[in-house]
Write a structure and sequence with these properties.
The structure is a single chain. By secondary structure, this protein is of the alpha+beta class. It is 17% helix and 37% strand. It has two helices and 17 strands. The strands form four sheets. It has an eight-stranded mixed sheet, with helices on one face. It has a four-stranded antiparallel sheet with strand order 1-2-3-15, with no helix packed on it. The radius of gyration is 39 Å and the shape is elongated. The chain starts with 9 loop residues before the first strand and ends with a helix.
């Protein structure tokens, strides 16, 4: 974690954080939840040796967005709306809680150099289910909501509805190094794309030959037309007969 060369006085008392040189104090707001959203993550597999034992280094990695909000460092100018996000599985003996850790590392490996970070720890079954859906290409978006011990500026205690909020990492007592923050995840959800199987549409054959059983004269409309023709012909013959009778009577 990057440190500043200047030593400043830091005081934490009565739920307020004051830093020498900062105009506003900082307070915590446990009732407000930090929201993180991300898209499909990369599935990283591997192992690491620590304290003489071999353990899994598997994780799901990507970048998370705070939406309209910001993540900053109390006493420093750094701030961002995106964090380097990783999701890891807790040991099998871990409780059913989902934990969140936030920090800033100015010496992180590329492509996460100088980035704020968010590490989410979930139970093994939850991790396996999310990993399976990611590998199947079913995940559109992932949403995380957590109650944290991040700080907010005292001036932002009552922000306007819908307004952006800046969250702050705390600062160590020497006033030179940012401290990490922790949180308890209230919800983790992801959107799955539904796989719809399109029904094949029938394509009529070009210039399909007419079957011998199909007779156009069998149609209802054609029969009506034929009946009308016969009736008209009968009426014409009757009219001619009446004219002939009238002509004979006139000669008498």
């Amino acid at each position: 974690m990057r440190s500043d060369a200047t030593t400043r006085a830091v005081t934490t008392a009565d739920g307020r954080l004051t830093i020498e040189g900062e105009r506003n104090a900082f307070v915590q707001s446990p009732a407000r939840h930090l929201l993180l959203e991300t898209g499909p993550l990369d599935v990283v597999s591997g192992y690491a040796s620590q304290n003489g034992s071999l353990g899994s280094a598997a994780s799901l990695r990507g970048f998370g967005s705070l939406g309209r909000d910001w993540l900053a460092r109390a006493g420093f100018a750094d701030r961002a709306q995106h964090v380097a996000l990783s999701i890891r599985a807790l040991p099998e003996t871990g409780e059913g809680k989902m934990l969140l850790r936030l920090g800033f590392d100015g010496e992180a490996d590329v492509p996460y150099a100088g980035a704020f970070s968010a590490d989410l720890f979930v139970s093994a079954p939850v991790y396996s289910e999310l990993k399976r859906d990611l590998q199947a290409g079913l995940v559109d978006a992932i949403s995380i909501s957590a109650a944290t011990n991040l700080w907010i500026s005292d001036a932002d205690r009552d922000p306007p509805a819908g307004g952006a909020l800046t969250w702050y990492l705390g600062i160590e007592a020497d006033g030179r190094t940012s401290s990490s923050a922790k949180g308890l995840v209230q919800s983790l959800s992801w959107t799955q794309r539904g796989r719809r199987q399109e029904e094949p549409h029938p394509v009529p054959a070009a210039n399909a030959p007419q079957t011998p059983d199909e007779d156009p004269e069998d149609g209802i409309e054609f029969r009506k037309l034929r009946q009308m023709t016969v009736l008209n012909r009968w009426m014409m013959n009757l009219l001619i007969a009446l004219i002939a009778i009238m002509f004979v009577l006139a000669l008498k």
